[in-house]
Amino acid sequence: MTSHAFYPIGTPGQPWGDAEKAEWRSRQTRQRSYQEDVLTVIDRLRSRFDVVQYGELDYAPDGVYPLFAIRSRDWDDALPCALVTGGVHGYETSGVHGALQFAERHAAGYAGRINLLVAPCVSPWGYERIHRWNPDAVDPNRSFREDSPAQESAALMQLVAPLRDHALVHIDLHETTDTDESEFRPALAAREGHAFEPGEIPDGFYLVDDSENPQPEFQQAVVAAVEKVTHIAPADANGEIIGSPVVAHGVIEYPFKRLGLCAGVTNARYTTTTEVYPDSPKASPEQCNAAQVAAVCAAIDFALAHRLAQLRAAQSPAAGA
Question: Do 256 and 268 form a contact (C-beta atoms < 8 A)?
């Protein structure tokens, strides 16, 4: 079904120009504080981890936003690396707070086993305005590519570049919300000059695997861990979640690198994008954060266990026979 649903900016059927983008930006208001919600938590972690500033976004007149990542203090180049990213879409709250809670409560337990790099809030302007886009009406999570149009994406790519071939696992923390259908997809259709095609928001957690590097056993290990915390989204009547075929319990696939998605920013073997559903009557904000943390721990645990098994197999006498 195709809908010509009204969106208050632009002319139906015509892509936005600079004037429409400026009007859209003028409607975005600050609703929460990056400084209070994110930077204060990062400051608490400075005694236990290295905190690196990897960029700064000057979005005058709205403000200047420093970008920080949390890094293992005992970094060892002989160890593999795990990358955790949150807040690529600033409005997806549990991605930000889940990444911070993982760093605060669990990261120390991985010392000496894996190097950790956590970028908890990739899009702080979007975090404050509870929006998917940056102030240029650009989606950072379609912009992880050369000559990126999104400053947020370009800064993270530069941070991660030295680790691109050394990362073992990357988990990118997201949410699917009711506002995807009521605001963000209609806005996207209006921006592109397309008709809005309504979809269905899944009730529950799911994962997005990389169709160009599928790791089904890894994805199912993460789903199994999260299922202890919150419910997993079922397929719809078409056997799909958000228009993509369900390939396993709670799992769909996208081509990460071709779409410019954050989860494709490294060449890690194990990659996934989480999707928590915070609008479910069966899930609280605390559960959503806990689901993200459980997903991160399960992802790293799986990757480490399989790496260790491979190393032992390579060292066994039979391997050299």
Answer: no
Q: What is the mean pLDDT of residues 9-22?
A: 97
Better-scored residue on pLDDT, 269 or 320: 269
For 73-79, what is the mean pLDDT? 95
Q: Which two tokens stand for residue 199?
A: 């979809």
3-state DSSP percent of the chain in helix, strand and coil, to 5: 40, 20, 40
Kindly provide the residue ranges of all beta strands, DSSP E only, lying in the chain, ordered along the sequence.
Answer: 50-58, 64-71, 81-86, 115-119, 167-175, 206-210, 240-241, 244-245, 251-254, 270-276
Domain that holds residue 60: 18-320
User: What are the two backbone dihedrals, phi and then psi, of residue 239, each rounded to the nearest 5 degrees?
Assistant: 75, 30
Strand, helix or coil for residue 150: coil
What backbone torsions phi and psi does residue 255 show, to the nearest 5 degrees? -85, 100
- In a domain, residue 5? The reply is no
Q: How many structural domains compose the chain?
A: 1
Q: Which residue reads 């894996």 in tokens?
A: 114
Closest among 120, 123, 155, 118 to 139, alpha carbons compared:
123
| pLDDT, position 65 | 98
pTM: 0.95
Residue 301, in any domain of the structure: yes
Residue 167, classified by CB atoms within 10 Å of its CB into exposed (0-12), middle (13-18) or buried (19+), is buried
> Which residues, other chains included, contact 243 with Cβ-Cβ below 8 Å and sequence gap of 6+?
199
CATH of the domain at 105: 3.40.630.10
